[in-house]
Amino acid sequence: MKIEVIENVMKYNKDQADKNRKLFNGNNLLVLNLLSSPGSGKTSLILETIKRLMDKKNIGVIEGDISSTCDAEKIGKLTANIIQINTGGSCHLNASMIEQAVSKLKIKSLDLLIIENVGNLICPSGFDLGEDYKIVMSSVSEGDDKPVKYPPVFVKSDLVILNKMDLLKVSDFDEVFFENKVRELNTRSDIIKLSCKTGSGMEKWIEWVLDRCKKYNNR
Amino acid sequence: MKIEVIENVMKYNKDQADKNRKLFNGNNLLVLNLLSSPGSGKTSLILETIKRLMDKKNIGVIEGDISSTCDAEKIGKLTANIIQINTGGSCHLNASMIEQAVSKLKIKSLDLLIIENVGNLICPSGFDLGEDYKIVMSSVSEGDDKPVKYPPVFVKSDLVILNKMDLLKVSDFDEVFFENKVRELNTRSDIIKLSCKTGSGMEKWIEWVLDRCKKYNNR
Questions:
Q1: A120, A156, A168: best mutation site toward chain B, by most B Cβ within 10 Å?
Q2: pLDDT score for B7
Q3: How far apart are CA A196 and CA A198, in angstroms?
Q4: In whole angstroms, what is the distance from residue A95 CA to residue A79 CA?
Q5: pTM for this one?
Q6: ipTM of this model?
Q7: Considering the domain B2-216, what is its CATH architecture?
Q8: Distance from the CA of A163 to the CA of which of A138, A205, B17, B93 falls in 20 to 30 A?
């Protein structure tokens, strides 16, 4: 009985995600769904990405938080294409929330839409939002065992970003262990190591985004 | 209809939590429920606590993870009183899981039971496990805005631990901002700042635990 309810919820979400995807595709929009623990650096990555691409691409952001607008305010200093979703306690974004948010964005003018999911390494990975790529971000200060302890999000993501590489020198993070554990779960995804703080590695991320823009902006 | 289902689940959990609490109280056991994001240092805190108290107190640990036993293995080197719960995907522990785990521990011999919840700053805060105290851990590397972005867990916790104080010198974490934001949500809880890595501040935490053991072990 309970399982039936969950299936209905997931089926409803999948249908809405497919509608979102159709809308995104019809507008030649690349859509990224960014997932991580609280404090891994999702907002910092978005800020640094906008700074580097604002002359080349029109970027929109949907900011997901259980409450508050503090991240959206930071991003709002760089772009007007920003919508905050406050989930009111819910631990993940779903496709219906994205539908509502997108209706308030001028998506015809956008090349790239970045969705910053609620900070949670577990629940958001189960909800398709209609994105083209799921990206999981982990950070050096969280430790090298995250793929071992939270496998589903690493299995489902199309790219793994390892942030806060500037802290490597003051930590016992084992890069080889981390990479091996990611590889055990997921052989298709690149691993990009960077530091939003120092900028190191950011060029690889920007290249990854621009490569995909080429494809998705010209469908 | 959906709300009714959720109420039933929460009512069932509360009833089981009350049973757990009765069992814990009857055995003069202090029970702590430790909550945080992935990688904040819950396991490190438990390891350092056992090392400092193993000659004075019998400590049991229930380790919650969606999968894996890597944290339990680390703790198992210091105590035999360790049970792993693998939630199989669920993003939080519930009171029934704790009932099952406790049935495998020799709780009559224990003074202190520490429950390490699944790494998630959102969902676990809604589930009473029958514990005496909820403790939320945040870390310097996650940033000072966690109380703003994830208020419920800070509202519901009886103690706030700020870990990784050794990273303060390489971060822009604002201690006053963090403390003020915690205080806006919660005036009753202490804030203990420490570093599991260097040991600084650990004496305050150990004192906090021993003070509560005095009360709960002699009911």
A1: A120
A2: 57
A3: 6
A4: 23
A5: 0.90
A6: 0.85
A7: 3-Layer(aba) Sandwich (3.40)
A8: B93
